[in-house]
Amino acid sequence: MSDLYVWAVLFMVVSLATQGLLIAVQYFGESVGWGATNRLRITLLRHFFSLDLAQRKKYSTGELIERIDGDLNALQNFFSQFVIKLVGNALLMIGILVALFMIDWRIGSGLTIFTIGALFMIDRIRASAIPYANQARQINGQFYGFITERLQGADEIRSNGASRYTLKQFIQWIAKYYPALKRAEIRNYSMWMTSIAVFTIGNIFSLSIGAYLYKSGAISLGSVFLIVQFTELMMVPIEQIRREMEDLQKADASILRIQELLAHKSSQPSVSTKPFPEGPCDIVFKNVSLYYNEQTPALRDVSFAVKRNTTLAIIGQSGSGKTTLTNVLLRFYLPTAGSICINETNIESFALQDMREKIGIVTQDVHLFAGTLRENLTFYNSSITDEDLIETMTALRVLPWFHGLTNGLDTTIEGLGRNVSAGEAQLIAMIRVFLKRPEIIVLDEATARMDPETEHIVKQAIQALVSERTCLIIAHRLETIQHADAILILESGKVVEYGAFQALAADCSSMLTDLLQKGGVSLENV
Amino acid sequence: MKTYKYIYQLMAYRPFLYALNGLLWLLIHLLPLLPGIILQSFFDQLSGHSSTVISTTGLLALLAAIALSRIVIIYFGGLTDILHRFSISTIIRRNLFAHLLHKPSATTQAGEVIIHFREDAEQAESAVSWVLDVIGKFLFAIGAFVVLLNISVSMTLLVFIPLVVIVMIANKVSYKVEENRERSKEASTAVANTIGEFTSIAQSVNLANAEPYVIEKITALNEQRKQRMLKDRVLTQALDAIFSNTVSLGTGLILLLAASAIRNGTFTIGDLSLFIYYLAFITEFTDFFGMFLAHYRQTAVSFSRMEKLFQKGMEKELVEHHSLSELPAEQKREVEPLETLTLHNLSYVYPGTEKGFRNIELTIDRGSLTVITGVIGSGKSTLLKALAGVLPYEGEIRWNGRAVTDASAFFTPPASAYTPQIPTVFQQSLQENIQLGVYEEENTLDRSLHIAVLQDDVHRKGTQLSGGQKQRTAIARMFAREAELYLMDDIGSALDIETEQKMWERIAHEFLHKKTMIIASHSQECLRRADQIVVMKDGQIVDIIKQ
Prior knowledge:
- The complex is a heterodimer.
- Chain A has 2 domains: 2-263, Up-down Bundle (ABC transporter transmembrane region fold); 283-521, Rossmann fold, CATH 3.40.50.300.
- In chain A, helix 3 runs antiparallel to helix 4 and helix 6 runs antiparallel to helix 7 (221-263).
- By secondary structure, chain A is α/β, with parallel strands linked by helices.
- In chain A, strand 4 (337-342) and strand 5 (345-346) form a beta hairpin.
- Helices cover 63% and strands 12% of the residues of chain A.
- Chain A is elongated, with a radius of gyration of 35 Å.
- In chain A, the strands form 3 sheets. In chain A, strands 6-9-10-3-11-12 form a 6-stranded mixed sheet, sandwiched between helices.
- Chain B is α/β, with parallel strands linked by helices.
- Chain B folds into 2 domains: 3-319, ABC transporter transmembrane region fold, CATH 1.20.1560; 340-546, P-loop containing nucleotide triphosphate hydrolases (Rossmann fold), CATH 3.40.50.
- Chain B is built from 16 helices and 10 strands.
- Chain B has helices spanning 3-11, 15-30, 33-46, 56-102, 110-151, 153-200, 202-207, 211-263, 269-307, 380-387, 407-410, 430-435, 445-451, 467-479, 497-511, 524-527, and strands at 340-349, 356-365, 369-374, 394-399, 402-403, 416-419, 485-489, 516-520, 532-537, 540-546.
- A 6-stranded mixed sheet of chain B has the order 6-7-8-3-9-10, with helices on both faces. In chain B, strands 2-1-4-5 form a 4-stranded antiparallel sheet, with helices on one face.
- In chain B, helix 15 (497-511) links the parallel strand 7 and strand 8.
- The longest helix of chain B is centred in the middle third of the chain and has 53 residues, at 211-263.
- The radius of gyration of chain B is 34 Å and the shape is elongated.
- At the A-B interface, helix 1, helix 3, helix 4, helix 5 and helix 6 of A face helix 3, helix 4, helix 5, helix 6 and helix 7 of B.
């Protein structure tokens, strides 16, 4: 009897030790998994930031979060658990089978065949469920995309009486999503159903063979009991291995999606290492064309030159290619044909970072993010001090606006700059750019959303700042171009008029004169 | 509202489906009682302890039959559960969506919204569905307990009382688990939000040459998540260990106690198999029950999160019963033609700031064009938003002298229509974007395309909209609606001069002195046509010029 107690105590000690080991394994597995996926996440982000604009536009924000974060989380499980669990469970399974062989070879071989069959069956069912799960996930993703997008535009929807219509679209989405969900979910149930069937077969097999061997006197009743227990125990590794296979499959799909993102290669030339010229810059566009696709050229044979310390104004109707022109200058797109040179060096040979440091651009849409005003101005660059910020704001003469902010640089800005007016956002963008002290400045409708008073002050400041820099101004408003040295008019991506401002303004047949008259701006003001 | 009230309301949403589902799942949970008894008889028969009428082969056939019927019931139970779960989470999602579409926005961030729609709704769905599982597993445990008591009272109590105590202690610890879970979830949301934010403004990141700093920031968030996750996972694993140890411990106890009982003949090997078989199920119940309680507490958190989106007293809308396949009949809205619009002592200040407008007094006559102008931050956009029912306000807006009570419901067509400063264009065709449910027979599409100078763009396919095109889309969207009052926020700022001129000529031709219009703008085109110019500064009207 005392033997029995020893065994019982041993049993409990072993199970406690097992659990302790499991905790340790969990800790190291998770640690390795998170370490690896975090690094991969950063790699993906770096890669994404290096991509061309057109490649980036293929992904919506939701999709990107899913790829850079969601897919990597699936991989995380895989990294931290797969090997440990697979090896552990395989060993357990082999151990059980060996034990059964030691009782009786007939039972051992029977259950080996059963185990292989069970693994095969369960895996088949699992594999057949995948396409349905993917489809459901895809529709689900689109459904959430719809919800997010509509709620972001909820004010416009409601105030234009389209709530009912939008709710109807929601109901249409439900009708589309449910069948897909049902198909996917019922397959999950079929996995459960299969495992019940498989294990009932296994149990019946071991019970009948056990009964037969017992009756024929080959084994003891204790052995029959052991066989039944072992068959039950077998469920655990089979189930775990199935789950790990599922993780493997998920990880596989994730890796494919991650690879797809990594496969996009930036079209930037790899040998762009020349330092950007110090001091004033001349810009020359020579026969630049850009085709997004074969039919629609965004720019056609555009040629012009901007001499150092002068200002070129680019005008044209919305959609005429003005913004594209600046995107080409900043190498967000590489021209399909033609060349762009700065101080007689093709811009493709400059180091990209260096180049973007020296060219400052204020875009039509300003991008703000959740954080403080300071963070939005410095983009987390801690080497920029508050004094630098104040200095730049002083130069731009926007201190009165800044002093009006109760919390100063610590003013909270909500995600997407929701609590900032469009005019203020443009002010912030302006400060961002002049912080860099660029040699070339591109202003794309940079003050359009400011009120005239602020616009006037800021423009005067800009005037002073651009006088010793090369400057490209994109404008809808004629007042903006009054101080330009040269004018370029774009129409459907083509230059239709280009020349010195004074010459064009003096020429009664020029488009500029026509525009100035229409715009009610008399030449005396100029 | 209390969590159980929400859950009750949800249970009552599809009562018959829920009852059927409950019945099926009760069977699914209770059927495993039988195989235990069959196993017991099987061993007793083998060892010659009992002589049941059924042979061992018969018992095995019975085992197969039970498994088969359980599989069939699971299939149907699966179908009802999928439908029922879907109904529960979808009714919440529908109600949330409808609510958020109708209410002034204030704070709905994309990341936040997704949490409500995905996680909070799912949380509630599971809470409702798991009630059935808890009942099923509980009845199983009771049944098993009774059967085991009949075999041996002392052994049953000796084995199960320590188990229950251990599980209860473990449940206490589960509070700590939840706390960790919450913190690791927060860290995850922070990572996802930041990645989303900076990838969506990647161009600005490039332009600012800020990639290294942004990456540094995300690296820090990554590390924070890693630490919290590690803590969470390790504690969870430790708890799991306690639970699985209880099974091992229980088995050990049963073996010890059974050994002597079997020797003196009061306990059969069949009894032993039954004890071990039921042990797993009963521990599973206690385990599941602990999980359910934790889940219930989290569901309470979910509901309180969603509740915040509703006004006090209106939160029951969240679980209101509606059809998921159709909308209630549309009621045609009649609005008294506008004679005068009066703003009386109107104020709104953005919470936590001094921005907004205060004590606005203004009268607007039928058929007039009012232009609100002023410097950045003077409050003109905010005022227009209040008029469009987008922001709440204090004071009164009077329509023909009568105060409007629910601005966000009132200021919609046919009373008013609105174009915001930065428009939203949805992922569908340009035409659908403009119509948004206004049908072609109403014949306003052509008119609105003409006014917004969009005739040429509407048929163009596959090109991305420029800033100006987006703004014109929003203008067309507004003018596609018949309204008494048109509200426009700075609609010319992204347009070139020629297009803007054309647009203003057309608006003037079509609407000037026929419809009432209020515009926030500094455009000359606009100011020279105004009947009334309102100059704002620091949230107050400083001048009203009539011309």
